[in-house]
Amino acid sequence: MSIVKMVELSSQSTSSWEDATRQAVERASQSLRNIRSVWVKEFEAVVENEQVTQFRVVLKVAFQLEEGTSARSTRSMGSEEIQGLE
């Protein structure tokens, strides 16, 4: 049986929403293994002087838990290392 866990992250980029998504996945992969998919829930843009300066996304990252991995170790990975992702 396989179990997938999801964590919610936010990221931003000066280039695009796609780049913000890529950056979130790249950073999350430093702490999480077996990432299977992402779901972008929200898009936001920062406007300064009538120009878009930042593209922001809120997304859910789905990753498959490894066999024999306790829920406690997974929680600590998610809350300690992923929270600072922005």
TrEMBL record:
Highest taxon of the lineage: Bacteria
Signal sequence bounds: none
Gene3D superfamilies linked: Flavin-binding protein dodecin (3.30.1660.10)
Pfam family, any one: Dodecin
Protein name: Dodecin
